[in-house]
Design goal:
two-stranded antiparallel sheet; 11 helices; binds thiamine diphosphate; binds magnesium ion
Length: about 325
């Protein structure tokens, strides 16, 4: 209001003098520039308003998750490697993100929201999800873990620059980077959301708790941490290594909005995350209760399946079970 009066009344008044005219011209150009910039910003923010390119129903997401699980088992058996238990644990979370929650465009790929797989060892599940979304050719899964393949044992940004936000594998880095990305969105007045997926054992890394402090300090309500809470880590149950519970109280005390849900049920997971979208002023953490090895009876809840691949006989059995889920 004050600047409007200045521009339209005071400065034109000064134009009665020669110096005043120059002064007026200078400020009027500045004024016009501000208006044009604000219009450009409005157009820009309008043009990045994206949707999920699939927006699938819960039933369809479950179907996609089954395909992903089948591909994980086939791929790990063929490659004689991979973290099968970790891959199968996170599958429903990834399917819910890529087929419903994340806002992005395909052909060409453009992201409004960002995803970081902080539990980088679960990359096999992620590649299979990207195949399901048509973002990686299915035949390329045959190259998994081979020399020079784009599909390395942990996500490498240089190999898949359009798909991998940041290379991960050393646990405890995804959330701190997510804090930086979410803060950048705010500073640049964009409304992208940042989703970070970690394991529960990963919470042993102190860097997560520093990021928790910063996320709350900067009021990053565009930051969503999903913890794949399968109660297992590398060789044992998390409670036997470092007991994290009550994890919800810990996050609440750090100033985060906390939601607890079933991370193997796309309907509950999506509804829970959507209910957080309008909450302002705090970052959000979703404690997604999951089963490690989910979908195949002999893999479920077994520490040994953290970093184990199915034999051809086990693959046959696994595929039979996945046909009847
Ligand atoms: C900094 C660091 N320390 C140790 C490891 C080795 N490591 C790989 S996976 C894993 C266990 C992770 O457990 P969790 O976070 O619960 O993931 P899950 O596989 O259960 O989903 C460990 C310790 C690592 N990758 N990075
Ligand atoms: Mg775990």
């Amino acid at each position: 209001m004050i600047s409007t009066v200045a521009y339209h009344v005071v400065i034109p008044f000064l134009t009665v003098t020669k110096k005043g005219q120059l002064f007026f011209l200078f400020f009027y150009i500045d004024y016009l520039e501000k208006i044009i910039n604000s219009i450009l910003k409005a157009i820009e923010s309008e043009s990045v308003a994206m949707r999920n390119p699939f927006a699938l129903s819960f039933e369809d997401i479950r179907f996609r998750a089954l395909n992903i699980r089948r591909n994980i088992c086939r791929m790990n058996c063929r490659a004689k490697g991979g973290h099968t238990g970790a891959d199968m644990s996170e599958t429903d979370i990834l399917a819910s993100l890529y087929f419903n929650l994340l806002r992005y465009e395909i052909n060409p790929i453009r992201w409004q929201d960002r995803f970081i797989l902080s539990k980088g060892h679960g990359v096999g599940g992620w590649y299979c999800c990207l195949v399901e979304a048509g973002l990686i050719p299915e035949a390329e899964l045959e190259t998994y873990l081979k020399d020079d393949s784009r599909l390395a044992g942990h996500p490498i940004r240089q190999k898949l620059p359009e798909l991998v936000t940041v290379s991960t594998g050393a646990l405890g880095h995804g959330l701190p980077i997510g804090v930086g990305l979410a803060l950048a969105e705010k500073k640049q007045k964009r409304d992208g959301r940042v989703f970070v997926l970690t394991g529960d054992g990963e919470m042993d890394e102190g860097s997560n708790w520093e990021a928790a402090l910063s996320g709350a300090q900067f009021q990053l309500d565009n930051l969503y941490l999903i913890i794949d809470k399968n109660r297992l880590q590398l060789g044992d149950f998390t409670k036997n290594i470092i007991n994290l519970d009550p994890l919800d109280e810990k996050w609440r005390s750090f100033g985060w909005e906390v939601a607890v849900t079933n991370g193997n049920d796309p309907k509950l997971l999506i509804e829970t995350i959507e209910s957080l979208f309008e909450m302002k002023g705090k970052p959000k953490v979703i404690l997604a209760n999951t089963i490690k090895g989910r979908g195949v009876s002999f893999m479920e809840n077994k520490p040994a399946w953290h970093h184990k691949y199915p034999s051809p006989e086990e693959l046959e059995q696994a595929l039979k079970e996945l046909d009847h889920v």
